[in-house]
Amino acid sequence: MNKSEFRKSCLDRLKKFSDYTKYKKDKQINNKLLKLIDGLDVKNVLLYIPMSIEVDVYPLIKKLRRRGIRVFVPYIKGDYFVPVLYRLPLLESRCGIRQPNFSTLTYPLDMAIVPVVGIDGLCKRIGFGKGMYDRFFAKLTKKPLTVFVQRELCKTKEILSQKHDIQADIIIAF
Fold first, then answer.
1. What is the reported pTM?
2. Which of the residues 3, 58, 101, 168 could staple to 148 if both were Cys, CB 3.0 to 4.6 A apart?
């Protein structure tokens, strides 16, 4: 199986969840993430604006912001992204992804919570195939703790990744 075949099979699996199953799994994952963050000295975290097949992290974003933790999300600029402070309103980008207005306020990230389509035998991310997270992580001088999240673990023992693909420190999936 090659990378694109694996990606397609994982996407097919992720699209089949009922709303109730999504809600239940997302709640479990958000609770695990909150416990992990509470156990560490996290001040700045990179999250994401979820699409329907990704874990809904909106409840986590709200809780973290209430606690004074800075939440950053990707702001897409062409074929890469920059982290911007999460704030409302969220506007739809050219690629159909919701994001806040651009800002230049930056802090070193303590943790990055990254959605995945699948994971290969080296625990490296198989994403949507655009490489935005790979390019972002390649530019960082200090790597944050990297947590992959997925509603259901879609992992292969095969090595499908390339050298530049990002690797997980922790994987949370059900």
1. 0.93
2. 168
CA dist 80 and 72 (Å) reads 15
Whole-angstrom Cα distance, residue 153 to residue 141?
A: 29
Of 71, 152, 81, 153, give the one whose Cα is nearest residue 112. 71
Is the pLDDT score of 78 beyond 90? no
Q: Which fold has domain 3-173?
A: Rossmann fold (3.40.50)
User: Structure tokens of 52?
Assistant: 């329907």
Residue 98: DSSP 8-state: E
Cα–Cα distance, 58 to 118 (Å, whole number): 22
Could you tell me which residue, 152 or 91, shows the higher pLDDT?
A: 152
- Residue 137's H or E segment, with its range, is helix 132-139
Could you give the percent of the chain with pLDDT greater than 70? 99
Backbone angles phi, psi at 62, to 5 degrees: -60, -45
What percent of the chain has a predicted confidence (pLDDT) above 90? 76
Per-domain residue ranges of the chain: 3-173
Residue 144, helix vs strand vs coil: coil
C-alpha 74: how far from chain center: 10
**H-helix segments, 40-139:** 58-66, 132-139
How many CB atoms lie under 10 A from the CB of residue 39? Answer: 8
